[in-house]
Amino acid sequence: MTPRSVRDRRTPAGAPWVRTRLRTAPGTAWALGLLVLLTSFLAALFPRAVERQGTDGLHHDITAASPGHSVLELISPQPSLQLLPAEREAAVRDAALKAIHESTRAALPAKVRPGAADSAYGFRTSRPMPAQEAWLPRPEGLDPQLSYATLSGLPRHATLRSGAWPTVRGTVTEDTDAVEGAVTEETAKALGVKPGATISVPTRAGEQLTVRITGVVAPREPRSTYWSAETLFRTPALVPEPNSTPPRLTPPRYYWTAAVLLPPDAAPALLGSTGEPEMFWRFAPEVSGLTADDVPGLRSALASLESGPGLVRLRAMAGDNASFRTELDQILAGYDTLRTAIEPVVVVAAVGVGAVAAVVLLMTAGLIGGRRREELALLRARGGSLAGLGGRLLAETAVVAVPAAALGLLAALPFFGPARLWPSVAGPAVVAALICAAVPAGAVLPHRRPRLPGARDDLMAARPSRLRTVAELTVLVLAVGAVAGLRRRGTADGGGDLLLSAAPVLVGLIAALVLVRLLPWPLRLASRAVARRRGAVCFLSLARAGRSSAGGALPLLALLLALTTAAFGGSVLAGVADARDRAAMLAVGADARISGLLDTAPLPARLVREVRATAGVRQVAAVQVMSEVPMPPGADGTGSMKNMVVLGVDPDAYSGLARTADLGTFPADRLRADKGEAGNVVVPVIVSRSVAAELGDGPRDLTTPAGDLRVRVAGIVPRTAAVPDHEFLLVDAAALTRQRTTTLLVAGDPDPKALRAAAGQVSKGISVRLRAEERAAFVDTPMQQGARKIYLAAVAAGAGYALMAVLLSLLRTAPERTALLARLRTMGLTSRQGRRLLGLESLPQALPAALGGVLVGWATITLLAPGVDLVGLALFNGPGATAPDTARLRPDPWSLTLPALGVAVLTVGAVAAQAWWASRRGSITELRAGDPR
């Protein structure tokens, strides 16, 4: 044996499989990698977008709240009177308060632990004290009430405008009779305070503590927590005199209240005052590092500080009677409410898009396996094992998919700032695992048994197996359970889980399976009908459609899921807009509302005429509003403690406006009073449900500011346009003794400037409210904006994957169709007939997808609507209290029809483009000797 014949065991027997395959089919590898990269990018981006929207919404809710609501404050009463005077004085001096400030700051939750910039501490009077100085203003004869406080870091947060900074001269004690102080510019302007002025402060001993104003200061950042947590330190206020015997019979009198700022070590002088002084430590929370996932822990920590172990630790530092208070926990509770309402709806969209992407990946795997069927059959015939073939396919798929998934992850990391890493990693990992498992399985499993040459898996000849039937029944059970659970539990309380969120996907899956089972029946009937007709185009197109693969459920499933997701997302956005339109209508009652003070001041007849003549006004309903009318006494003579609003209206005008606004419609004849009805004659009325329950069925005597009536309930409506959020009684204005117009309800599209000009010429106290302005007041919070953007992105992603599904479906059979056209052209088929043939062949797939998408989208939304509440997404940050109790989902016609039409047009267009391209190529190019197509 020569050396050449000896095989070198260190050299491979042939080229590596993976490298050879990638060099042989680089286009397939690049296309697969691009699809995996795009899907991984979206899968990594979604959790980052959700986390960022939650964090931005949290920061917005905290920063948008007034500092007085978000500040963290520790309060402790003045030192015990049982202590020595020197000990009490030392406890309130700046050094002692500063030490407690630093120690308590370290005990606050780390996520909101404040810095020293806007935090403050000091000693203040908790109850304002009257100032007797004659030079102070008294708008209505009442002495101003002044508070006194030492505020740390005043020179750092204020600028001296006039005079000098207040200082401490010597050692201030409880018996000191004079100290220096300062006021802000606004206080000085309102109260006429100038440097050198003195104010006397009453003490418990009956003596006077003199505070000499030495300076006027201006806040450097008036809106900062330092100045805005307690606005009295910065801005004086006119407040009404307390009324000790409600209800008030006379208009309230007002007096000034303001604050005087003392130097920190002047605090002992306030110990003897009658203002019940207290120590305070105020902290501005730092929320820049706070994320949505920190909210549960922060709420628990705040609860502990308010009444728990945390408060015990604070009392060990600040005194046994110290208390911690903040409204930050209420802000977090409101944030949790909004997040709980939004998250389930967003998850529904995410699950839908994820399902469509998974189906497209499976279709890609099927396309790769179908293109290599002959190659794998040959290797299997030459002794290749299923495990060996699967391992080689897994290796060549992983070489492409894993780097592509990693690149998709890396591409998503720069977006939406810092966020948790593991949710972003999970999505690309699932994408890579799915494609790596689907390609080998889809390519190898069909070769478990030998296939006869030329055997087909026709759609019309296929018979579902028992395993497929069991799987479909299992999916059906899951879908029914998910829909029933979502309808019963709903999304308003955030009680949805993954199964409930997958309800639209499961409904789409069931619809796809049903359509695949039913599709052979119309194809068989149509084939029999055209078989006897002249012309081969229709017969060939139906024969081609019937001979398509029985595994065509994936393209149909992808299209149905994409259309369902688009319809669901579009309907959610439409439902949000409808809910806000409805809330604006309920707040105003019409397109415009013109009323006097408290809706009870009379409007002149001139204004009514000018409003009717305003451009854009279609209808005007004059209403007489009588508020706080007591219910009539019961049959036993006992009075009712309930009140209602009585509305005198013109039956024709008001019923027409109620019909236009869809607020408690009723026939005008039911409310109209006969001529001459007054006194003891019974007048028909339309009432709300609770008023109907009080009045009963018989006639009742009613006393109103417009006269006495004897009324009988003629109809019940849930709401009415004039007072949508009150209990009411509608009566014909002709039956009232003293008639006057207090409110005008306008329907149409009036010019706001013209309406306000007409009202302004008559009186300055007339208010004009417009439904369009009320609607514009609905401003999305960052969380609501993020949810809307995610839904729009879901619709766009679903449309993109639907396009991929259509292209993959056509690409799978493109070689066969091209070869068919080439053969038929040799038999005399024209280019026009070829385009018609391929177009008719695509209709049995495109029409069921389009029509099925519309029906499935409508059915899904209708089935799930009772369980989907859009109040949190639409109205959480609304301007008024008058809002719909719920905002239900409804099918949006445009969201149902436009995507379906797009699918049909896209499918037919793609087939037409393929027929045009095939007609430009010669038949010799397509028909080669030995070509198996």
Can you put this structure into words, describing what you see?
This protein is α+β, with helices and mostly antiparallel strands and 933 residues long. The chain has 32 helices and 21 strands. The strands form 3 sheets. It has a 9-stranded mixed sheet, with helices on both faces. Strands 1, 2, 3, 4, 9, 10, 11 and 12 form an 8-stranded mixed sheet that branches. A hairpin with a 5-residue loop joins β7 (198-202) and β8. 42% of the residues are buried. Residues 1-9 and 245-249 have low confidence and may be disordered.
What can be said about this structure in brief?
This protein is an alpha+beta fold. The protein contains 32 helices and 21 strands. It has a 9-stranded mixed beta sheet, with helices on both faces.
Helix and strand arrangement:
Blueprint: H1 17-24, H2 26-64, H3 67-70, E1 72-77, H4 85-91, H5 94-107, E2 120-125, E3 129-130, E4 145-151, H6 154-157, E5 158-163, E6 178-184, H7 185-191, E7 198-202, E8 208-219, H8 225-228, E9 237-240, E10 254-262, E11 277-283, H9 295-307, H10 309-318, E12 323-325, H11 328-371, H12 373-381, H13 386-412, H14 422-444, H15 466-489, H16 498-501, H17 503-518, H18 520-531, H19 537-546, H20 553-588, E13 592-595, H21 605-612, E14 617-630, E15 643-649, H22 651-661, H23 668-671, E16 682-687, H24 689-695, E17 700-704, E18 707-716, E19 728-732, E20 743-748, H25 752-762, E21 767-770, H26 771-776, H27 782-812, H28 814-826, H29 831-864, H30 871-875, H31 893-920, H32 923-926
Parallel strand pairs: 4-10, 6-8, 15-19, 16-18
Antiparallel strand pairs: 1-11, 1-12, 2-4, 2-11, 3-4, 5-8, 7-8, 9-10, 13-20, 13-21, 14-15, 14-20, 16-19, 17-18
Helix pairs in contact: 1-13, 2-11, 2-13, 2-14, 2-27, 5-10, 9-10, 9-11, 11-14, 11-20, 11-27, 13-14, 15-17, 17-20, 17-29, 18-19, 19-29, 20-27, 20-29, 20-31, 21-25, 27-31, 28-31, 29-31
